[in-house]
């Protein structure tokens, strides 16, 4: 929220109360819903979800963008445009006359001006064709606002941290990631999504995606207020994304970190020489990820989870379990289901309990037979590995998003090994979920929050 310069008061009402940024519109070009459009996003844009094209009134004297109907949008927001002294547009092609307002104009990239009232405006170059710019606005009191047009990112992010950032979060999450990497967006920055058109998913899915990106949406006429100052939207530290095959779980996990810089992607699948179909699948996943992410292929997750660092995306826990069962010989251990087998060197004392195994929850060793019980050495060794992984999730200080398969709702596997894997994965998922702040179930590309 910027400080208001001394502006006039018109006959139609105040030019704007001190320190105001008013979102006269928050929608995409043409607004939301689009006239005559039957899509799901437009059909859901009713009441407070309907949006006019994006326009921002700063301290009653500066107007960023003036789409058709801007006078009515201001009136509905309880504001008047009679005090506007400067009208800036992001597109040179959009400059011109708007009745009752100063001539609209677009500054050249890199140009700076001090406006009437003391606001300093700098036109920021974009990764878009020449003739389109974003605007950095600094109030006389030093508060900073950054506005980016739809589908745009800064060509060279940098500069001082901003108090308020308005951008196309859903259309360009990478633009937000770059701003975070440059220090323009900090945990204290209020990131508000604008240019919300029918290309975005319908509400409430759009709101869920924004929250995952550390951003929020406000209705037309809203004023990012003092209550939001000094804190951004909190992002869960540990998230588990569950789903069946081809459910969209990996895409959901990647989307949750798309607005953050320096993500470290951990692929537990490894390589399968001679398997062309698997290689093609891996290539599709790799092509979908942002180019600036780093990638590691490993099942040694505990050191990564316990280390400090940038956000971590683990895809997936089911393949981690496959590797762990290979390592301990769990697939064909003859003592796995034999309660009369002699204890192995890793077996915990006492009978098995198939339910939660004490305060640490299912899937942990040392508090009952957390991985499912029995007296076989392979089973106990797997429980030990699972316990270490769950403890690492519990103590993780970096942001972590993990993917796993939900296999318990399908057909019963035909083989003993398949049933063993299904049971152990169910226990592993439950144990990791117990340590996560956010748990999602993805079906048909749609995420349902379980926690």
TrEMBL record:
GO terms for molecular function: adenosylcobinamide kinase activity; ATP binding; cobinamide phosphate guanylyltransferase activity; GTP binding. Its EC number is 2.7.1.156, 2.7.7.62. Residues 1-27, 331-377 are annotated as: Disordered. It catalyses: adenosylcob(III)inamide phosphate + GTP + H(+) = adenosylcob(III)inamide-GDP + diphosphate; adenosylcob(III)inamide + ATP = adenosylcob(III)inamide phosphate + ADP + H(+); adenosylcob(III)inamide + GTP = adenosylcob(III)inamide phosphate + GDP + H(+). InterPro entries: CobU/CobP (IPR003203), P-loop_NTPase (IPR027417), RibonucZ/Hydroxyglut_hydro (IPR036866). It comes from the Bacteria. Keywords: ATP-binding, Cobalamin biosynthesis, GTP-binding, Kinase, Nucleotide-binding, Nucleotidyltransferase, Transferase. It is an enzyme of class 2 (transferase). One of its GO terms (biological process) is cobalamin biosynthetic process. Pfam families: CobU (PF02283). Residues 358-377 have a biased composition (Gly residues). Pathway: Cofactor biosynthesis; adenosylcobalamin biosynthesis; adenosylcobalamin from cob(II)yrinate a,c-diamide: step 5/7; Cofactor biosynthesis; adenosylcobalamin biosynthesis; adenosylcobalamin from cob(II)yrinate a,c-diamide: step 6/7. Catalyzes ATP-dependent phosphorylation of adenosylcobinamide and addition of GMP to adenosylcobinamide phosphate. Belongs to the CobU/CobP family. This is Adenosylcobinamide kinase. The lineage of its organism: Bacteria, Bacillati, Actinomycetota, Actinomycetes, Kitasatosporales.
């Amino acid at each position: 929220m910027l400080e208001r310069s001394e502006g006039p008061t018109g006959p139609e009402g105040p030019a704007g109360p001190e320190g105001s940024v008013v979102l006269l519109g928050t929608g995409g070009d043409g607004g939301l819903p689009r006239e005559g459009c039957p899509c799901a996003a437009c059909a859901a844009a009713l009441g407070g979800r309907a949006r006019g094209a994006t326009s921002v009134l700063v301290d009653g004297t500066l107007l960023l963008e003036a789409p058709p109907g801007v006078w009515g949008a201001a009136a509905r927001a309880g504001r008047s445009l009679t005090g506007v002294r400067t009208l800036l547009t992001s597109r040179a092609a959009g400059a011109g006359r708007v009745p009752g307002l100063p001539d609209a104009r677009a500054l050249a990239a890199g140009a700076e001006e001090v406006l009437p009232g003391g606001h300093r405006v700098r036109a920021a170059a974009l990764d878009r064709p020449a003739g389109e710019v974003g605007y950095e606005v600094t109030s006389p009191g030093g508060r900073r606002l950054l506005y980016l047009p739809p589908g745009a990112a800064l060509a060279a992010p940098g500069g001082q941290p901003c108090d308020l950032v308005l951008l196309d979060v859903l259309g360009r999450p990478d633009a937000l990631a770059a701003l975070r990497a440059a220090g323009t967006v900090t945990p204290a920055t209020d990131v508000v999504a604008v240019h919300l058109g029918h290309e975005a998913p319908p509400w409430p899915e759009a709101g869920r995606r924004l929250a995952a990106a550390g951003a929020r949406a406000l209705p037309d006429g809203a004023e990012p207020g003092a209550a939001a100052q000094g804190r951004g939207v909190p992002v869960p530290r540990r998230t588990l994304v569950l789903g069946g095959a081809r459910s969209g779980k990996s895409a959901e996990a990647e989307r949750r970190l798309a607005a953050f810089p320096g993500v470290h992607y951990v692929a537990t699948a490894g390589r399968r020489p001679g398997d062309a179909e698997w290689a093609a699948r891996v290539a599709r996943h790799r092509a979908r990820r942002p180019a600036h992410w780093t990638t590691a292929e490993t099942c040694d997750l505990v050191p990564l989870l316990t280390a400090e660092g940038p956000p971590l995306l683990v895809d997936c826990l089911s393949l981690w379990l496959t590797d762990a069962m290979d390592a301990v010989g769990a697939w064909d251990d003859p003592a796995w289901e034999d309660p009369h087998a002699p204890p192995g060197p890793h077996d915990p004392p006492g009978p098995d309990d198939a339910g939660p195994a004490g305060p640490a929850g299912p899937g942990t060793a040392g508090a009952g037979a957390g991985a499912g019980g029995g007296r076989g050495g392979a089973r106990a060794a797997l429980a030990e590995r699972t316990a270490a992984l769950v403890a690492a999730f519990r103590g993780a200080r970096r942001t972590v998003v993990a993917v796993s398969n939900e296999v318990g709702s399908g057909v019963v596997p035909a083989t003993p090994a398949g049933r063993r894997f299904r049971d152990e994965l169910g226990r592993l998922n439950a144990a990791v979920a117990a340590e996560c702040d956010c748990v999602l179930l993805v079906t048909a590309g749609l995420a349902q929050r379980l926690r």
